[in-house]
Amino acid sequence: MSYPWLTTLWQQWQQLLSQERMHHAMLLVSPAGFGREALVRQLAQTVLCQNGVTESCGLCHSCKLFTAETHPDCHVIRPLEGKSISIDAIRQCNHWAWETSQLGGKRVVVIEQAESMGEAAANALLKTLEEPPANCQFILTTSELDRLLPTINSRCNKWRLQIPSEQDVKRWVESQLMQSIKWEDVRLNGCAPLAVLNFIEQGQNIRHQHLLEGLHQFLTPPHTGLFSVAEACMKDGLLSLRWLSYFLVDCLKVHQGAVNYLIHAESAVLVQQVATQVNQQTLLQQIQALNALIRELESHSGLNHELLMTDWLSGFIPAP
Ligand SMILES: [Zn+2]
Questions:
Q1: Is beta strand 107-111 parallel, antiparallel or unpaired with respect to 136-142?
Q2: In 10 A of CB 128, how many CB atoms?
Q3: 34 and 127 in one domain?
Q4: How far is the CA of 62 from the centre of ligand 1 (A)?
């Protein structure tokens, strides 16, 4: 397993495979950014492999088809961006589950982000999970177990990914990049190793820093640079707004004396400076307004992002 934090779980699954005790419906619970897709792929390839039992051989006909992503017995469904998994997609899954394997071995049906199934779709899947067809392995993933229907949840064998420590994540990303990184890079990305890696490789860490510096300048009298902050807020879409939200929550923590754990470990001075410029009540109001704005932008894509940001930023300027 290429990601060290997945090794334990993989070894447990290998044990099930070797004892032929793997449940027909495996459910992996893991937030995004931890490489759960890699783990699912590894299980799928191993189940389909014509030689290996606990490890895929990489050489057989099945493994070659799998690597080329043309395996006729491996089916994956996932929701389209912001959409739910339709009942038609689940009916297709049921069809795959009951048909004969093209290669004569097992069939694998992967349902990613299973929480995106609506009630009708989930109910359509239920019967297949209750009366599992022979030789069919279901693999479901979810980042939010609470949003998955309890009936689906109870028919799967649940596995939770063990979240690595901040230290381990920092060390792993540093070993990949061959450079040292900041604690705040790790914390801003919810300690998800692949998200941290992406954050730095895509230069988001630099844009994040610019955004905070721009905000700091704007919040310091004479409050210049409104439009350049609003523009900086557009560069990474909603992500930029979430960064702002994390930053302002850290400023609020300073007001409340809760400075033991700031997300912005290395930018603590900036947090302190902004906290001195903005009073607690304004901070609270602006955080609430920002979070409402994020929700609004999430559900309506056609809004004028920049105009809304300019509006929101003006909320910091004290009335004359
Ligand atoms: Zn193989």
A1: parallel
A2: 22
A3: yes
A4: 6
Please tell me the distance from the alpha carbon of residue 279 to that of residue 266, in angstroms, as a whole number: 22
> What span, in angstroms and rounded, lies between the C-alpha atoms of 115 and 113?
5
As given in the structure block, the two tokens for residue 62 are 């099945």
Beta-bridge mates of residue 158: 27
Cα of 56 to ligand 1 centre, how many Å?
5
Question: Which tens digits make up the pLDDT trace of 202-227?
Answer: 999 999 999 999 999 999 989 888 88
Neighbours of ion ligand 1 (CB under 5 A): 49, 51, 56-57, 60, 63
Distance from Cα 22 to the centre of ligand 1, integer Å:
18
Spacing, Cα 60 to ligand 1 middle (Å): 4
Q: How many domains does the chain have?
A: 2
- Position 295 in a domain: yes
- Work out the mean pLDDT of the chain and round it to a whole number: 93
- Considering the domain architecture, whether residues 15 and 149 belong to the same structural domain is answered as yes
Q: Which residues of 221-260 are buried (b: 16+ CB within 10 A; e: fewer)?
A: eeeebbeebbebbeebeeebbebbbbbbbbbbbbbeeeee
- State in Å: Cα 21 to ligand 1 middle: 20
Tokens of 308: 């809304």
d(CA 200, CA 266): 15
